[in-house]
Amino acid sequence: xxxxxxxxxxxxxxxxxxxxxxxxxxxDTVFADLGVxxxxxxxxxxxxxREFGVELSEEAVAETRTPRELLDLVNSVSANAS
Length: 82
Known about the structure:
This protein is mainly α. It has a single domain (about 5-80), classed as ACP-like (Non-ribosomal Peptide Synthetase Peptidyl Carrier Protein, Chain A, Orthogonal Bundle). It is about 55% helix and about 0% strand. It is built from 4 helices and no strands. The two termini are about 15 Å apart.
């Protein structure tokens, strides 16, 4: 999964008008500061699990605060599943 994939999923869950400029520079910005509320975040996680065939633990997801952390989590789980 790459940053473009994550942006597409977040926009689909939160809406284009809700998500602040989400580019590579925003990778370390807290989701709430990007306009992604907890419901949109959880919808995004569910979409990621479906689309990329990964199962993310609730504990790991709860500790995820930024796009970079979520990308790292998804890619780590995906690599370990291979």
